[in-house]
Specification:
Layout: H1 11-20, E1 25-36, E2 39-50, E3 54-58, H2 65-72, E4 80-85, E5 88-89, H3 95-102, E6 105-108, H4 120-131, H5 136-149, H6 165-177, E7 183-187, H7 195-212, E8 215-219, H8 223-229, E9 232-237, E10 240-245, H9 247-251, H10 256-264, H11 269-278
Parallel strand pairs: 3-8, 3-9, 6-7, 7-8
Antiparallel strand pairs: 1-2, 1-4, 4-5, 9-10
Length: about 280
């Protein structure tokens, strides 16, 4: 497929991208490298991200998870390698082609990162006002549709400080999917939440996937949450993929580094195995 330049995709490129949507693999990361100075963070990473499934990336601090996400969403350009999204190499996109494609990706940041000075409605409307030419009526309809879909329409006039942690995560998800998002990246979505709210966020990820048909990529350290939600689990350690597979098969091929990481979480092996085998 021809790489895009500064102009939008051609009809042939759009048709090829539409045809690729029948592929169960949404994103293919191939031989990805990223270095900062003398620090080689990503060392030839290759793995697949499944379409409309929950793909969880785990690993110790400093293993390269956040750097990997920045390459996938193209906030940074990798030194070499490919990030193939529906067959299009995002690593090579630039200009308007990159902007157009990147709108298909949304990010739910750690601690939600809502604008404190904006209401729920305005937080969710912000991407539409910044990146589209929709009318005020169209924006209102789109925002309320997303809020209703996530069960928080009644909170549209509230301020973020008036919401619980779980509700704030719902607003952050609504904002992330308001631009017809196809890929949704969650950066440590359960950080700072109590166990009951963690379970609510786990359910929210599955609910969003089902209602909006998104592909979910979740960075997490919460092993209980990981094995409840993951359809595919990728373990990243010191810039290399140790294993990437269905959770049950990951458990069958634990190496020393992954076994140590799982055991250090404090979550019982029985809990992990029962949830992994159930998916």
């Amino acid at each position: 497929m021809r790489l895009f330049s500064g102009r939008g995709p051609s009809e042939a490129e759009r048709a090829a991208a539409d045809a690729a949507k029948d592929d169960p693999v949404h994103i293919r990361v191939r031989d990805l490298h990223k270095t900062y100075g003398d620090h080689h963070v990503l060392k030839g990473i290759s793995f697949d991200i499944l379409r409309r499934r929950t793909n969880v990336v785990i690993g110790p601090s400093g293993s390269g998870k956040s750097v990997l996400m920045r390459q996938i969403i193209r906030l940074e350009k990798p030194d070499s390698g490919q990030v193939l999204v529906d067959g299009v190499d995002y690593a090579q996109l630039r200009g308007m082609a990159l902007e157009e494609r990147r709108r298909g990706m949304g990010m739910v940041f750690q601690m939600s990162a809502l604008f404190d000075s904006m209401t729920v409605f305005d937080n969710v409307a912000f991407p539409l006002r910044e990146h589209t030419k929709l009318s005020r009526k169209e924006i209102r309809e789109r925002v309320m549709e997303r809020l209703e879909g996530l069960g928080i329409a009644a909170a549209h006039a509230k301020w973020p400080a008036e919401l619980s942690g779980g509700m704030q995560r719902r607003v952050a998800v609504a904002r992330a999917v308001v631009l017809e998002t196809e890929v949704l990246i969650y950066d440590e979505p359960t950080t700072g939440l109590d166990p009951l709210t963690v379970r609510t966020v786990d359910e929210l990820i599955a609910e969003t996937e089902e209602k909006f048909g998104v592909t979910s990529i979740v960075i997490s350290h919460d092993m209980a949450s990981v094995f409840r939600i993951a359809d595919r689990l990728t373990f990243l350690n010191f810039g290399e993929v140790v294993v990437s597979d269905a959770p049950a098969r990951v458990l069958d091929q634990l190496d020393d580094s992954l076994r140590e990481f799982v055991d250090a979480s404090g979550v019982s092996r029985e809990f992990i195995e029962s949830h992994a085998r159930a998916r």
